[in-house]
Amino acid sequence: MMDLSDSLAFYLRSNLRGHDFFISYSRADATAYALALAHRLDKENLTCYIDQWGALPGEKVPLTLLRKLTHCQVLLIIGSPRGLASEPMRTEIGLFAQTGRPIVPIAFGNVQQAVWSKEILGLAVTVETIESLNGAQPSEPLVARAKSSLTYTRQDKRIKRAIWTTSGLVLTLGLLIAYVSFNLKDTLRQVEKGKIQIDTIQKKRAQAEKLRERAVRDLNWTTRERDSAAAELLIATQQVTYTRATLSHTQDSLGVTTRKLQAERKNLVATQKQRDHYLATAYKRAAAATEMLATIEKGLGGLYQQPALGQCLLENVAIRPLVIYMYSDKYSLDPVGRARLDTLAACLKENLAYSVHISAHTANAWVHEGERLGSDDIGMPEKQLGTGEYSYVIGNNMASAVQNYLKTKGVSVGRMVSISYGNSKPLYSLELLNNRVEVRLVHEKP
Predict the structure, then answer these.
(1) Which residues of 212-230 are buried (b: 16+ CB within 10 A; e: fewer)?
(2) What is the mean pLDDT of the segment spanning 4-16?
(3) Where do transmembrane segments lie in this chain (predicted)?
(4) How confident is the model over 49-62, as a mean pLDDT?
(5) Which of 40, 90, 137, 307 has the fewest CB atoms within 10 Å distance of its CB?
(6) Residue 301: how many CB atoms within 10 A of its CB?
């Protein structure tokens, strides 16, 4: 147990002068060894700083710990297996190396593999066994080297203090000699100084006279410049007044134009709403007509089941193609198209001598369900399909929709051939009617 005087001396050494040793280690595998080394050095009446709570494992080194590090005299590095890859140890070693103070590396293996190996390049390494690490038993040679490093540091400091003290004495003696010499020659120097001051005063008087004449000239020139600036300011004020008047007139004209544009916009919106209403009404009527046609063809479909009428339908389709219209880019069949294909499929089942040729034609635009129309003509959509290869791709999708539907109704795929003409063969001026699939029958020779 240390008495009160020893405790006070330990506090003054560790806080005013700094600790003797700073132990850098990894908490993962060297905590016990570091504590044992600190305890062993403490028995030698040496102070050690060992961080146990200043920084959390895996985090950056705090500034308070780095300040403690820079105030220590010797750095002890415990190069345990986990410490070789420790980035916080690398930070501590790099900072302490800048102070030029002694560093004692302690190796339990090959320290050349450590991330901080470049910082201790050229330093002598004290080798300890892995058993001493696991058993937390620092060797006596290690303790002896640590003490010798601290002793060397203290001797170096004493030499530096002696050099500074001697330099101070020499400098003081030189200043004293210079002061005495200065006092002996002070009288002669004062006389010479008086002569020089008289000459200086005369020169300054002549310079002052020249400066006064230059100031008078500058004052006259400044007066002329002021009058010229006043005239320019008057002209600029008049120009600003004219510009403000012109701007006010322009703002009035802009306000009138803005009000006219707002009125025209309101009229345009009202016209657009009215046109959309008319188009919506037309589409509702077209949808009702489509449903009515579907109902009529569904009622007439039973008539085609009779052999004579079915044969008549096949011969008619062989002469004039059956047309299926599509009104959206979903490639879906409406009730009328499905009813026509249902009747055709039923006839084809009874007449195997016919094959099906499906040709698809596209318009330059689609009708998108639920979208506002962008043309005055019924059926002219806002979204344009364009020309070229894309229209052929859309035609293939339309033909495939019809072919797949007939397949679900029992028509063999081998009896069907499909082709897309894109928008290369329009028949109608109304784009809505050009978006169609034509189904033609061909009688196969026996």
Answers:
(1) eeeeeeeeeeeeeeeeeee
(2) 51
(3) 162-182
(4) 70
(5) 307
(6) 14
Mean pLDDT for 28-47 is 90
Q: What is the greatest pairwise CA distance in the chain?
A: 152
From the list 29, 30, 67, 61, the residue with the least C-alpha distance to 49 is 67
Handedness of CA 224, 227, 232, 233 (dihedral sign): positive
| Dist. CA 128–CA 107, nearest whole Å | 6
State pTM to two decimals: 0.36
**Whole-angstrom distance, CA of residue 380 vs CA of residue 430:** 8
Instruction: Say whether 210 sits in a helix, a strand or coil.
Output: helix
Distance between CA atoms of residues 261 and 302, nearest Å:
62
Q: What is the mean pLDDT of residues 181-191?
A: 81
- Give the span between the Cα atoms of 39 and 440, in whole angstroms: 104
Summarised one tens digit per residue, pLDDT across range 118-163 is 888 888 888 998 898 889 899 899 899 888 888 766 655 666 667 8
The single-letter DSSP state of residue 380 is -
**Mean pLDDT score, 241-268:** 88
Percent of the chain with pLDDT strictly greater than 70: 74
Asked if pLDDT for residue 100 goes beyond 80, the answer is yes
Q: List Cα–Cα distances, 322 to 76, 315, 356, 378, 393, in angstroms.
A: 97, 11, 11, 24, 22
DSSP H helices, 80-185, are: 87-97, 130-135, 140-184
- The answer to whether 431 and 352 are in contact (CB under 8 A) is no
